[in-house]
Amino acid sequence: MDDDRHDVIELSRRYITQQAELGGSEFFFQNANRSLKGSFSSQQDVCFWEESLICRRCRLAQTRKHIVWGEGNRNASLMLVGEAPGREEDLQGKPFVGQAGRLLNNILKAIGFERKEVYITNILKCRPPENRDPLPDEIKSCLPILEDQILRIGPKVILTLGRYAGQTLLMTADPLNRLRGKFHDRGGIPCRVTYHPAALLRNPQWKRPVWEDVQALRILYDQIVGDKPPWSPHEK
To answer: pTM higher than 0.85 for the full model?
Structure first.
């Protein structure tokens, strides 16, 4: 019981931190059509709050160590969406902190961004066992959370990392090689699809296509947002 209570407190802290970063004055939960403003008015509200924070909407709740909500600038004009937390992310409760995360940081730097300037999250908020691919019902369970994040942050451009991220946000079954190389309209937000950094570690030949994608992303970002210092697409 004490361990369960500790988990509630830790998950509550992480969720509140995320909501504060996103600038929300209300707490929204996916399991009910209501919001809680300010303090909680009753013990029933507190119990509801704790139940919502300890999400058990899919099987991943049985094996995860942490829920990995997302991290970054709550006013970000650029949002990155990956597929699911890996081992290191599950241990630390933060997205893209392992080897693939370090590569992602370098990719961002190559186009003139610091990690702290963007917002990074995943389709799934919990790690699938053995880093297996996300399952359809898991994606369905997590998607409302991602939709809420996109709504709150209001990015001007989205970069998806990996097949499942691209297919989910664009609501398509097209393979990644058909999705990448161009921009898609995602509810009025330009969305670029590229390979996941973890895939680059296994397939170095995909680094060139990713470089092409992120160069195009930066060029469009400058056209839409224009808040960055001058940048040359030849820098790497």
So the answer is: no
